Amino acid sequence: MTSTPLESIRHLIIDMDGVLYRGNRLMPGADRLLPWLDQHGIKYVLVTNNSTRTPSQYAEKLRRMGLVVSPGLVLTSSQATASYLQRVAEDGDRVYCIGEDGLRQALAQAGFEFSEVDPSYIVVGLDTGFTYEKLKRACLAIRAGAGFIATNPDLTFPGEEGILPGCGSLIAAIQACTGVAPKVIGKPEPGLLQAAMDMMASQPENTAILGDRLDTDVLGGHRLGITTILILSGVSRPEDAASASIKPDYVFWDLPELMRSFSAPAVSPPKKTIWRRKS
Ligand SMILES: [Mg+2]
Predict the structure, then answer these.
(1) Domain(s) of CATH 3.40.50.1000: residues in the chain
(2) Which residue from 47, 121, 165, 181 could staple onto 169, CB 3.0 to 4.6 Å apart?
(3) pLDDT tens, position by position, for the chain (279 residues)?
(4) 145 CA distance to ligand 1 centroid (A)?
(5) Phi, psi of 2 (to 5 degrees)
(6) What distance in angstroms lies between residue 27's CA and the mean position of ligand 1's atoms?
(7) Which numeric CATH code is attached to 90-184?
(8) At CB < 8 A and 24+ separation, what contacts does 244-251 make?
(9) Active site includes 91?
(10) Which has the closest alpha carbon to 181: 153, 213, 158, 205?
(11) With contact defined as beta carbons under 8 Å apart, do 76 and 48 qualify?
């Protein structure tokens, strides 16, 4: 496989959490990244595996941190799930939704009706109001032949009280009582990233994903054949990148280093090199 020079990238899929912000804190350089991409004529979509918020809620979260972004540039796993369902569902198919605002709104906007009785699909995202009753409804419907679709596979996520159960843990409960594995849309499965490419009408050879996780962003990008850029400001560490079986095409300490490298074509780094901060 030949290395794609950074300068040939015209479309960028940007993972938000751990790249643009952590919690409610903007990452260094995040305030300059989007104007910088605009100046260089690079299109972008901001993506997240998180299914709970709507694009407008994400745009508002970013605005509170000082980033002005149109909700139309935000793509969540909920929207990608609704788009997928639009392609596979038949007229009149109704869904039983286990999830929060982000997922319910995406499904409603895609024209789906919700039903607890004889749904054609069980659609699952993170739901902090998950109950035995919801598990029972999913169990009965899937055993009766309903399709099983999930927004994202994340077993856990970091919360204020510690590591908390994520969508993947709800999927595991449903899988345990049905013996059925869901169709998963979020990273590292291709659904969300393919939807982001469709939004930009981009091709693999001029598209990259910028993320902070090897197991979702880099693996997902690798599966789609796009360039993968790992940033070490989030979850994955330098030693993880060095020992990973699927290595990112580029690794940077932070966004300022990425922007410096992009704008200096003569010194673009060789593939699989970890750039270390000068001490
Ligand atoms: Mg992330």
Answers:
(1) 6-49+187-267, 90-184
(2) 165
(3) 445 678 899 999 999 999 999 888 999 999 999 999 999 999 999 999 999 999 999 999 999 999 999 999 999 999 999 999 999 999 999 999 999 999 999 999 999 999 999 999 999 999 999 999 999 999 999 999 999 999 999 999 877 788 899 999 999 999 999 999 999 999 999 999 999 999 999 999 999 999 999 999 999 999 999 999 999 987 788 888 888 899 999 999 999 999 998 765 433 444 444 544 443
(4) 34
(5) -90, 150
(6) 12
(7) 3.40.50.1000
(8) 244/214, 244/218, 246/214, 246/218, 246/219, 246/222, 247/218, 247/272, 248/214, 248/218, 248/272, 249/3, 249/4, 249/208, 250/6, 251/275
(9) no
(10) 153
(11) yes
CA of 225 to the centre of ligand 1 (A): 19
Distance of CA 205 to CAs 9, 14, 33, 45, 238, Å?
8, 16, 22, 17, 26
pTM, two decimals, is 0.89
Tokens (6 digits) for 74: 């935000």
15 carries an active-site annotation: yes
Q: From the candidates 15, 127, 154, 249, which is the catalytic residue?
A: 15
User: Cα of 20 to ligand 1 centre, how many Å?
Assistant: 9
Expressed in angstroms and rounded, the spacing between residue 21 Cα and the centre of ligand 1 is 9
